[in-house]
Amino acid sequence: MAESNTYEKYTTFLLMKPSRRISKISPPPIVKLNRAASELQDVISFGQGVPFFTPQSSLFNNFVENFKRQDHIYSADEGIEELRFSLSSFLHDEFHVQYAPSDLILTSGANQAFMNVIFSLLDPGDEIILPSPYYFNQKMAIEMIGGKVKVSQTSNNWQLDLQNIENQITSRTKAIVIVSPNNPTGAIYTHDSLIQLGELAERNNLAIISDETYGLFAFDDSFRSLKSIGSIKDNVITIGSLSKVFGISGWRVGYIGYPEHMLDSLLKAQDTIAICCPTASQKMALELLKDRKKFKENIAKIGNIRKKMILELKQLDPEMTFEATPGAYYFFVNTMAIEKDDNKLAWDLLEKAKVLSIPGSVFGKRGEGYLRLSYGGTDEEKMKEGVNRIKKYIEKR
Ligand SMILES: Cc1ncc(COP(=O)(O)O)c(C=O)c1O
Predict the structure, then answer these.
(1) Distance from Cα 393 to the centre of ligand 1, integer Å
(2) Residue 111 Cα to ligand 1 middle (Å)
């Protein structure tokens, strides 16, 4: 983890000195946890943020056979036209969202999409409101470019607290970020709260950046893409990802759906950071978008694990409470009664019970005393074994 004095440590190597801005940013401690887990045998992982599936090898072989010269070189900055058409109809069919192909930019994942958007919106010192617990890379990105994060605490069941969001607004606020379905809580924000959020943003002339990376991992019917809500005006920027839906996080395909007036500034950021989403990855995405049935089957399997895991988690210590949230593939379990220090608990669980989990404090102060358990990467047997190991660990303490 970066120490607060990293900057001073490097002052002797003047040319190599990291910027004050980057020195202030702490990388999430989960890198160390993941590394330690990979060095152990027989670990059950509730840690990973990726689903259990990857594309079928037949599809991959087909992709390689049809590879052409132009697939090796840059595409247009905004992405291959055919893919933008395909993505536009995908977003329409799945989320009832109208984004014309010309209103979509393909990026190297949703993380880069977020970076493009904040580069386009923020001047140094400008503020963005992040409901907490938050996705830590977003906080890091805002601070890295000289912006300021204003944290807004979510309610007891991890929903947006609109009054609290309003209280964070100042003359420097540019945008509110929402992640629904949410990482790390699994919450899906209610339709009503999204309508009210839209009104609040409009009243205060703010943008809303809606991260819908987990939009298809919604295990009830409550998910609404923000842009699909009729009363929401033209201040919404949608970012999304194919990483999770198709199990292709390593191929780096994400997107931005944006209001027309942002095109020029978004393209400046795109061209400087990545030029384009890797062309080969775009071609792969095009293949994957043709087969909607397969990914739905995979997601339904995760939905089944979710139901079973709820039953298993209820058998744990009654003091370990959790909301059976319907989205992404995460449960955020309150472990304060067992151990207040979530970081210590996660390490202890890894070393003594061989279960990998993510400490909630990684996602901000509101996550202290919680563990994030991911059920996206496990099968039923491993899930049961993992929860059982946690149970035994608690009993032995
Ligand atoms: C909320 C959220 N947004 C974005 C990302 C990054 O997605 P990508 O792989 O498309 O960069 C993640 C990855 O875990 C995430 O949880």
Answers:
(1) 31
(2) 6
Tell me the CA end-to-end span of the chain in Å, nearest whole number.
28
CB 267 within 8 A of CB 261: no
**What single string gives the DSSP state of each residue in 322-391?**
B----BTTEEEEE-TTT-S-HHHHHHHIIIII-EE-EEGGGG-GGGTTEEEEE-SS--HHHHHHHHHHHH
Q: Map out the domains of the chain as residue ranges.
A: 6-54+294-396, 68-291
| pLDDT tens track for 193-234 | 999 999 999 999 999 999 999 999 999 999 999 999 987 778
- As for ligand 1, residues whose beta carbon falls within 6 Å of it are 49, 109-111, 135, 179, 183, 211, 213, 241, 243, 249, 254
How much is the pTM? 0.95
Which parts of 156-253 are beta strand (E)?
173-179, 207-211, 236-241
pLDDT per residue as tens digits for the range 127-180: 999 999 999 999 999 999 999 999 999 998 999 999 999 999 999 999 999 999
How would you class 165 by CB atoms within 10 Å of its CB: exposed for 0-12, middle for 13-18, buried for 19 or more? buried
- CATH class for the domain made up of 6-54+294-396: alpha beta
List strand residue ranges (DSSP E) for 156-224, in order.
173-179, 207-211
CA of 83 to the centre of ligand 1 (A): 20
Q: Which CATH architecture has domain 68-291?
A: 3-Layer(aba) Sandwich (3.40)
Q: Average pLDDT of 14-32? A: 83
Write out pLDDT tens, residues 63-88: 888 899 999 999 999 999 999 999 99
